[in-house]
Design goal:
Blueprint lengths: L1 H12 L18 E4 L11 H4 L4 E4 L1 E6 L2 E2 L1 E11 L2 E9 L10 E8 L4 E4 L9 E9 L2 E9 L2 E8 L4 E4 L9 E9 L2 E9 L2 E8 L4 E4 L9 E9 L2 E7 L6 E6 L4 E4 L10 E9 L2 E9 L6 E8 L4 E4 L9 E10 L2 E9 L6 E8 L4 E4 L8 E11 L2 E9 L7 E8 L7
Length: 415
Amino acid sequence: MRKIILALVAAASAGLAAGALLLAPGVSSASLKAGPARSAARGNLQPAQNAGNGWTIQPMPIISGPSGNASIQLTRVSCALTTSCTAVGSYIFVSGAPHGPQGGTLAEHWNGRTWKVQVTPSPSSSSALTGISCASATSCTAVGYRNSRGGTLAEHWNGRKWKVQVTPSPSSSSALTGISCASATSCTAVGYRNSRGGTLAEHWNGRKWKVQVTPSPSSSSALTGISCASATSCTAVGYRGFGRGTLAEHWNGRKWKIQATPNPSQAGSYFDSVSCVSASSCTATGQGTNAVTGNQFTLAEHWNGRKWKIQATRNPSHMGSYFDSVSCFSASSCTATGLGIDAATDNEFTLAEHWNGSTWTVQATPSPVALAVGLYGVACASALSCTAVGSYYTGGAAGFNFPLAEQWNGKAQQP
């Protein structure tokens, strides 16, 4: 998530994102196409990885305008049901357009058959959504930032339309990066207070958002993910500071308190995501860094109600692998997704691993042939149904990110 947030901010700062609504001037609902096409220019699927897997790619809409197709980044997904998932992110038209640069927040919904873009408000020219939680199919809340400099953003889906909610911003560069809703009237979002960092948590009580006091180990600490087992038990994760290690904090209904977390590497470890099935069973994932080679490796830790403990994870590439997201349907069924780096080509590939209660195992995932690709968000509506989203970049003059969605049907096939 930290990589995605920085990339989105950088793109917006370069003036690539703008627009007041999802369907910007010159973009009509008719321009939303199922795709992308599997062409050499846009990235062929590798047949060996796509045939007969438990994970399969789902067609995604493309946003087209007068200046061509938009570059799309999907960052998180939440599934209220196996037939109701919502993914969020942002889109930008990378080439010039008659109305100037266009883009903004993005939400797409899966109804069990197809993905469809939903109209979302974009408060400024560079708004983005980086987290989502659906308490039900008719109540989803997404969070992110209002512009390239920051400013907290929350939007709510009531089953018919998205609407911006007023959120407090401790500074002009505050941002919300993750959210978890125990119910439609109890959501907690986390992020950072300013451009340097500082942990941030805000709570929705059904009427308004309010900042909660959170401990910050350093001025560059940040919270990147959160999971609430109930309204009085939330766990947030992130990092203590750049190169300072993992961070976990717990909300007991009254206050936030730091929990001690082990760190596998002195070269820098951090959490991106957490999933709690109960107050005494949480799994956090992210990455560590090899102090000698500088390569990244997958990281998973489990909370048993008393302490955090590192779990052994698989690393399919010695060039680097890491997790971006995790979703647990039960204590014995968790799925983590992210990416790895091919040692031969230096290109990235999609990564998914499953926890069965005792071990993590790599699952075969179809991966477009691309310079950069990843599954940045995952949600499991059942032990046999998970949906992951992300994007992939094929390079070239166009410079497009194409949306990516994959679904797991419960088959435990390995690469």
